[in-house]
Amino acid sequence: MAYQAEDILRFRPYNGKWLLYFDGSDVGLADVNVDAFAMLPDGSLLLSLDAPLAQLAGVGPVNPADVLRFVPSKTGATTAGVYSLYLVGADLGLEASSEDIDALAVLPDGRLLVSTRGNFRFGTGPKALKGRPQDLLALTVTQTGAESAGEWAMYFDGSDVSLTAANENLDAVWSAANGALLFSTAGAAAVPNLALGPADVAQCAGTMGNNTACAFSLALAAAPIGLAAANVDGIHIVP
Q1: For a Cys-Cys bond, which of 69, 72, 174, 199 suits 230, CB 3.0-4.6 Å?
Q2: Cβ contacts of 167 within 8 Å, gap of 6 or more
Q3: Are 44 and 69 in contact (CB under 8 A)?
Q4: What is the DSSP secondary structure assignment for residue 132, as one 8-state letter?
Q5: What stretches of 13-75 adopt beta strand conformation (E)?
Q6: Among candidate residues 45, 9, 49, the one with its CA nearest the CA of residue 30
Q7: Of 95, 126, 94, which Cα lies nearest the Cα of 112?
Q8: What is residue 182's three-state secondary structure?
Q9: 224-235 residue pLDDT tens
Q10: Cβ neighbours of residue 182 under 8 Å, at least 6 residues apart?
C-alpha cells in the first residue's frame, strides 16, 4: 500500500494486512515527517514532527521539539480531528537543534518516554542531566499546553547495553504493561546476542534507569511483513 512520512500505518498480525490509520495529509501535515507518536488511553494521539511547521490549524507554529495532541473524529484513509498543543519543548529545556524529539511512548504510570535525535543536556554542573540519542528520558508532566512543565529523569541508558553508534539512535519506542521496552533504531544496530535492521523491533526485558540491563529478543522481524526496505520510526502495540 502507498503511504507517506506523515502517515501512521496499522498492521494486523492475524491476517498480515496493512491499513492506513492516520493520513497526515488530510489534517495539515502534508510534506512533513511525523517522526514520533504515542497513543493515549483515550485514543488520542501524541505527535512530534521532524521539522518546523509555520502554521497548523488550531495550534499555530510548531517546532520539532514540541508535542501535539490530536483527537480524531475519524481515522483511516479519510482522517479528521482536532489538534491542540500538548507540550512546548522549549519550556522543558529542549532548545538545541539536536534535541528534536524523535521517539515517544507513554509508560504504564503515565510518564512520557522521550528520545532525541542528538545529544541532550538539562541543567549545569555535576547535577546536569545529559545523554545521547541512544538514551530515553522519562518526563513526569505537571502542566501541558502553552506553559508546559515537568521533571526529567534518565530511563534507559543505551551505552549500558552497547548502543553507542550514530545509526543506533532510538527512533521508535513502546513500553509494555509488564515493563518490557520495545524499540527500533534509525539504522543497523547490534546489542548483546541480537542484530537489527532499521525496521526490526527489539525487546528489552530488564532493569531501566542509570544502570540499564537488558535481556534482548526480537519482537518483530521486518522482512516477513514487507518492511525490509523501510525504517520504523514509531511503534504502538494495541493489546
Answers
A1: 199
A2: 185, 186, 187, 188, 189, 198
A3: yes
A4: -
A5: 17-22, 34-39, 45-49, 53-56, 60-62, 67-74
A6: 49
A7: 94
A8: strand
A9: 998 888 899 999
A10: 173, 174, 175, 176, 201, 202, 203, 204, 219, 220, 235, 237
What are 185-237's pLDDT values in tens digits? 999 999 999 999 999 999 999 999 999 999 999 999 999 998 888 899 999 99
- Give me the sign of the Cα torsion angle 65, 114, 183, 20: negative
Report the phi/psi class of residue 28: left, alpha or beta, with left for phi > 0 and alpha for psi in -120 to 50. left
- Cα distance between residue 68 and residue 83, in whole Å: 7
Which residue type is seen at 53? L
Contacts of 26 (CB under 8 A, 6+ apart): 78, 79, 80
CB 96 within 8 A of CB 164: no
Q: What is the pTM of this model?
A: 0.95
Q: What's the number of CA atoms in the CB half-sphere (13 Å) around residue 11?
A: 14
